Amino acid sequence: xxxxIEREALGGVIREILDASHDSAAxxxxxxxxxxxxxxxxxxxxxxxxxxxxxxxLREVISELRRMLPALNREVFSETxxxxxxxxxxxxxxxxxAKPFADPKGLTLRGFYVNDRTMLRRPLVCVNTACHRVxxxxxxxxxxxxxxxxxxxxxxxxxxxLSLAAGYQDHLSNxxxxxxxxxxxxxxxxxxxxxxxxxxxxxCARCDTPLLVSRAREYLRTVSGFEFPTGLSVPENLxxxxxMIHVAKFRVTLLREYGI
Amino acid sequence: xxxxxxxxxxxxxxxxxxLTQRELARQVGVKASHIxxxxxxxxxxxxxLIKRIANALGLDRRELLFLSHPxxxxxxxxxxxxxxxxxxxxxKRFSSNRALLRRLQVTPAEFRLLRQVSLLEHVSSxxxxxxxxxxxxxxxxxxxx
Lengths: 260, 145
Hints:
The complex is a heterodimer. Chain A has 13 helices and four strands. By secondary structure, chain A is an alpha+beta fold. Chain B is mostly helical. Chain B has helices at 6-16, 21-28, 32-39, 47-57, 61-68, 72-76, 89-95, 98-104, 108-120, 127-139. Chain A binds chain B through residues 25-26, 28-29, 32-33, 36, 95, 97, 99, 101, 103-106, 108-109, 112, 114, 116, 118-121, 124, 126, 158-164, 166-167, 170, 231-235, and chain B through 1, 4, 9, 12, 60, 63, 66, 73, 77-83, 109-110, 113, 116-117, 119-125, 127-128, 131-132, 135-136, 138-141, 145.
């Protein structure tokens, strides 16, 4: 699909988001937002991931993660109940702190992970509950990915990892973030689901973004009742759209390039 | 969804910093009643006062301007444009705001931790630092533990 046609198709989704809003100021910013989403849809995930991990390396990493989390890539991690997610964190020696950061700029912060024993008794996973509950749960699994990889592979260069809605492309050049995203993505789309939704051939496998978004929307509606666009603000819906594109493209790349 | 107002933003930021209206008023050079009027939506702050309040509470001046003078939005542009803030700006604004750092009583260890945030990702708002700081403090163990 050509860039211009793809932009047009994505533009349809963006227009859908804007039409659901009466916020004229947010509509004014739609061009820039559209460009942001479009640039994410054009990113070459396969090339970016291959710079960080070859096939054997990433498969080994996932295999190690599954020793701790056997359900990874087998079952859908659809739990959004925060108390139950806190128990999951506790089982792996971390503490979950879930609280809202509802300021519009605050909403761009999905969560963070801190492992600094000089200040904290146990590693901290913090998620922003002002996001949609599905987004909050996704952020939880991303941050747990940081925690699990630290438990398995030892200390990160950094003691703190932050997850921002505008930073998806940055993740692709950072091995820590790739592993954390892999946990989130494989939890959301286990292999059998990914194969059914995205296949290994055809337009999905070529990362045709509008088609991936369409499949992801339908899937999320089925497994979690997630209706998109949500009743949230235009910027938040655009962030969710960006997240859907990122997760779907990441998942297709894992399936196609790594056989995961 | 509840509409965001200047008063609501000021009150929320003030609560986060555990400031009374009187303390904030002293910092920005107005009477406490003026802060109450602003939070109640009864008055609009002048441009110099917006600057002082933004500094005291660690808020974005543009955001306060748009909330208090919505007509300025059309002249200046929209708030939520992705990439509107340059990477590093948020950290510069946070780390150079001595009054805010003093008010938050940021320790050297906390400062080092927050600095990692600025190195790791593109943070679009320096309120993120305050949020991370408060979250870590809530989870922190006492020094003598």
